[in-house]
Amino acid sequence: MEIGVLGAGSMGAGIAQVASQAGHKVVLCDLSEEQLSKAKANLGKVMLRLVEKGRLSELEANDIQRRINYSTDMGDFKNAGLVIEAIVENIKVKKDVFATLENIVNDTCVLASNTSSLSIASIAAACKQPERVMGIHFFNPAPLMPLVEIIPAVQTDENKLNKTKYLIDSWKKVTVLTKDTPGFIVNRVARPFYGEALKIYEEGVADFATIDWAMTELGGFRMGPFTLMDYIGNDINYTVTESVFKAFYYDPRYRPSFTQKRHAEAGWLGRKSGRGYFNYAEGAEKALP
Ligand code: NAI
């Protein structure tokens, strides 16, 4: 089966790699040529590392790269059996894209969103065949994180859901079915982790580095909240918090933070922009004031 992935950012590029590693022909599509080139170059580096470590043969690495076609034209999804969308976390944009996608793909193609927080029912409602729409939520980085949340909308056909779940299981992922509620399982549990860390910083209790140090060295977490937010991207993380906050009728437990909003507005997005709560520029001191 051919797989389409829309959006070649942090998530889309990783999902394309996962699908190609599972043996599928993949079309990775983005509006931006630059993002596509970046995704292709990054995959080249990742493959080289895996070959050096002996985890892949040179032949396998070449095949994985060759199976992915890069395109700026969604028309190239016409032969896909599954399209996974991983573009900006905005309900209007996603709905428009799904309505357009439906006019491109064949009648049996399943359409999935990698959204972290938005309503799958609402995305499905933009389609003429809402029963073929579902959420398939990978975690970052998609090639390394085993968990994938599978989210049926109220409209989703059970047969299509089961077949898709089985397909993702066959990609050596661990799938969990979750209801279509804001943030699903993991992003809902994670909101207070980020939110409380940001409050601690805003109250002047401790700085970013100290909070992360306490959580990793003493708390046993693999990554501190600020390192993790920089990894996810502060733009995406802020938008997800805002979306969960609104979707839970402005429950103060999920209230977004101005610190995070200002970081997103300033373009301090984290690793992908070179600066976030920490500095990722080459040779720079990691911690920022
Ligand atoms: P990103 O900002 O890294 O990448 C988004 C990509 O979509 C960009 O390359 C952009 O050029 C492209 N794009 C935007 N509009 C488009 C359109 N109409 N057609 C084609 N391409 C378009 O975003 P990221 O982090 O990859 O997130 C994507 C989705 O995945 C979001 O819905 C997000 O909530 C979700 N997600 C993000 C995670 C993370 O840790 N960053 C984890 C799991 C899900």
Automatic annotation (TrEMBL):
One of its GO terms (biological process) is fatty acid beta-oxidation. Residues 3-181 form the 3-hydroxyacyl-CoA dehydrogenase NAD binding domain. Residues 183-280 form the 3-hydroxyacyl-CoA dehydrogenase C-terminal domain. It comes from the Bacteria. The keyword Oxidoreductase applies. One of its GO terms (molecular function) is 3-hydroxybutyryl-CoA dehydrogenase activity. Keywords: Oxidoreductase. This is 3-hydroxybutyryl-CoA dehydrogenase. It comes from Putridiphycobacter roseus. The chain holds residues 1 to 289 of 385 of the full protein.
